[in-house]
Amino acid sequence: MDQGMSIFQRIARRELPADILYQDDWVTAFRDIHPAAPVHVLIVPNQLIVTAADVLPEHEAVLGRMLRVAADIARAEGIAESGYRLIVNCKADGGQEVPHLHLHLLGGRPLGPMLQCKA
Ligand code: 5GP
User: Fold this and answer.
1) pLDDT at position 1, please?
2) Segment 92-115, tens digit of pLDDT
3) Domain residue ranges of the chain, discontinuous segments joined by +
4) What fold, for 7-107?
5) DSSP codes of every residue in 29-98
6) Does any ligand 1 atom lie closer than 6 A to the CB of residue 30?
7) 95 lines ligand 1 (CB under 6 A)
8) Ligand 1 pocket check: which of 13, 28, 31, 32 to mutate, most ligand atoms within 8 Å of Cβ?
9) Does the pTM of the predicted model rise above 0.90?
10) Any idea which residues carry the catalytic annotation?
Protein backbone atom coordinates (compact mmCIF):
# COMPACT_ATOMS: atom_id res chain seq x y z
CA MET A 1 0.00 0.00 0.00
CA ASP A 2 1.20 3.51 -0.77
CA GLN A 3 1.52 5.09 2.66
CA GLY A 4 1.14 8.52 1.04
CA MET A 5 -2.43 7.79 -0.07
CA SER A 6 -5.17 9.56 1.95
CA ILE A 7 -8.20 7.57 3.10
CA PHE A 8 -10.38 9.54 0.69
CA GLN A 9 -8.03 8.72 -2.21
CA ARG A 10 -8.31 5.07 -1.23
CA ILE A 11 -12.12 5.36 -1.22
CA ALA A 12 -12.01 7.03 -4.66
CA ARG A 13 -9.81 4.17 -5.91
CA ARG A 14 -12.29 1.66 -4.42
CA GLU A 15 -9.58 0.25 -2.16
CA LEU A 16 -11.67 1.09 0.92
CA PRO A 17 -15.43 0.47 1.10
CA ALA A 18 -17.83 3.40 1.00
CA ASP A 19 -21.40 4.13 -0.07
CA ILE A 20 -20.46 5.93 -3.29
CA LEU A 21 -23.30 7.98 -4.81
CA TYR A 22 -21.39 9.49 -7.72
CA GLN A 23 -17.98 9.27 -9.34
CA ASP A 24 -16.35 10.70 -12.44
CA ASP A 25 -12.78 11.38 -13.54
CA TRP A 26 -12.48 14.34 -11.18
CA VAL A 27 -14.60 13.79 -8.06
CA THR A 28 -16.12 11.12 -5.85
CA ALA A 29 -19.17 11.56 -3.58
CA PHE A 30 -19.98 9.13 -0.78
CA ARG A 31 -22.00 9.03 2.44
CA ASP A 32 -20.26 10.17 5.62
CA ILE A 33 -19.59 7.22 7.93
CA HIS A 34 -20.86 9.22 10.95
CA PRO A 35 -23.76 11.23 9.53
CA ALA A 36 -24.59 14.48 11.34
CA ALA A 37 -27.90 14.87 9.45
CA PRO A 38 -30.31 12.62 7.51
CA VAL A 39 -28.34 13.46 4.37
CA HIS A 40 -24.58 13.75 4.92
CA VAL A 41 -22.45 13.28 1.83
CA LEU A 42 -18.78 14.08 1.27
CA ILE A 43 -17.64 15.28 -2.15
CA VAL A 44 -13.88 14.97 -2.71
CA PRO A 45 -11.42 15.51 -5.55
CA ASN A 46 -10.01 12.19 -6.75
CA GLN A 47 -6.52 13.71 -6.71
CA LEU A 48 -5.20 14.85 -3.36
CA ILE A 49 -5.65 18.48 -2.35
CA VAL A 50 -4.82 18.47 1.37
CA THR A 51 -6.78 21.50 2.58
CA ALA A 52 -8.72 24.48 1.27
CA ALA A 53 -5.56 26.48 1.96
CA ASP A 54 -3.72 24.42 -0.65
CA VAL A 55 -6.00 25.34 -3.55
CA LEU A 56 -4.19 26.55 -6.67
CA PRO A 57 -5.44 28.13 -9.92
CA GLU A 58 -5.18 24.72 -11.62
CA HIS A 59 -7.77 23.35 -9.15
CA GLU A 60 -10.53 25.79 -10.12
CA ALA A 61 -12.23 23.36 -12.49
CA VAL A 62 -12.38 20.49 -10.01
CA LEU A 63 -13.66 22.85 -7.29
CA GLY A 64 -16.47 23.91 -9.60
CA ARG A 65 -17.23 20.26 -10.31
CA MET A 66 -17.49 19.59 -6.55
CA LEU A 67 -20.16 22.31 -6.16
CA ARG A 68 -22.10 21.16 -9.21
CA VAL A 69 -22.09 17.54 -8.03
CA ALA A 70 -23.26 18.69 -4.59
CA ALA A 71 -26.26 20.40 -6.23
CA ASP A 72 -27.03 17.27 -8.29
CA ILE A 73 -26.86 15.00 -5.24
CA ALA A 74 -29.01 17.39 -3.18
CA ARG A 75 -31.63 17.16 -5.93
CA ALA A 76 -31.37 13.36 -6.08
CA GLU A 77 -31.64 13.10 -2.28
CA GLY A 78 -34.77 15.28 -2.29
CA ILE A 79 -33.37 18.20 -0.27
CA ALA A 80 -32.89 20.77 -3.04
CA GLU A 81 -36.18 22.50 -2.17
CA SER A 82 -35.96 22.31 1.64
CA GLY A 83 -32.34 23.43 1.58
CA TYR A 84 -29.02 22.25 2.89
CA ARG A 85 -25.59 23.34 4.04
CA LEU A 86 -22.21 22.99 2.34
CA ILE A 87 -19.17 23.04 4.63
CA VAL A 88 -15.42 22.90 4.07
CA ASN A 89 -13.41 22.61 7.28
CA CYS A 90 -9.79 23.80 6.98
CA LYS A 91 -6.92 22.72 9.24
CA ALA A 92 -6.95 22.60 13.05
CA ASP A 93 -9.09 25.61 13.99
CA GLY A 94 -11.52 24.73 11.20
CA GLY A 95 -11.99 21.26 12.68
CA GLN A 96 -10.60 19.38 9.67
CA GLU A 97 -9.93 15.76 10.65
CA VAL A 98 -9.15 14.18 7.30
CA PRO A 99 -6.21 15.75 5.40
CA HIS A 100 -7.89 15.55 1.99
CA LEU A 101 -10.12 18.45 0.91
CA HIS A 102 -13.80 17.52 1.16
CA LEU A 103 -17.11 19.31 0.78
CA HIS A 104 -19.76 18.27 3.33
CA LEU A 105 -23.35 18.25 1.99
CA LEU A 106 -25.74 18.25 4.97
CA GLY A 107 -29.53 18.36 4.95
CA GLY A 108 -32.81 16.63 5.58
CA ARG A 109 -33.60 18.59 8.74
CA PRO A 110 -33.36 22.23 9.86
CA LEU A 111 -29.67 22.65 10.65
CA GLY A 112 -29.95 25.65 12.97
CA PRO A 113 -27.40 28.44 13.29
CA MET A 114 -24.19 27.98 11.40
CA LEU A 115 -21.90 27.91 14.46
CA GLN A 116 -22.65 26.35 17.84
CA CYS A 117 -20.33 28.65 19.78
CA LYS A 118 -19.80 32.36 19.84
CA ALA A 119 -16.41 34.02 19.64
P1 5GP B 1 -13.71 16.90 8.69
O2 5GP B 1 -13.85 17.04 10.17
O3 5GP B 1 -12.30 16.51 8.29
O4 5GP B 1 -14.24 18.06 7.93
O5 5GP B 1 -14.67 15.72 8.28
C6 5GP B 1 -14.23 14.40 8.06
C7 5GP B 1 -15.48 13.58 7.87
O8 5GP B 1 -15.09 12.35 7.29
C9 5GP B 1 -16.21 13.27 9.17
O10 5GP B 1 -17.56 13.70 9.07
C11 5GP B 1 -16.10 11.75 9.28
O12 5GP B 1 -17.27 11.15 9.83
C13 5GP B 1 -15.86 11.32 7.85
N14 5GP B 1 -15.07 10.13 7.70
C15 5GP B 1 -13.86 9.87 8.29
N16 5GP B 1 -13.38 8.68 7.89
C17 5GP B 1 -14.30 8.17 7.02
C18 5GP B 1 -14.35 6.97 6.26
O19 5GP B 1 -13.46 6.11 6.31
N20 5GP B 1 -15.44 6.78 5.48
C21 5GP B 1 -16.43 7.71 5.38
N22 5GP B 1 -17.46 7.43 4.57
N23 5GP B 1 -16.43 8.85 6.09
C24 5GP B 1 -15.36 9.08 6.89
Assistant:
1) 46
2) 999 999 999 999 999 999 999 988
3) 7-107
4) HIT family, subunit A (3.30.428)
5) EEE-SS-SSSEEEEEEESS----GGG--GGGHHHHHHHHHHHHHHHHHTT-TTT-EEEE---HHHHT--S
6) yes
7) yes
8) 32
9) yes
10) 102
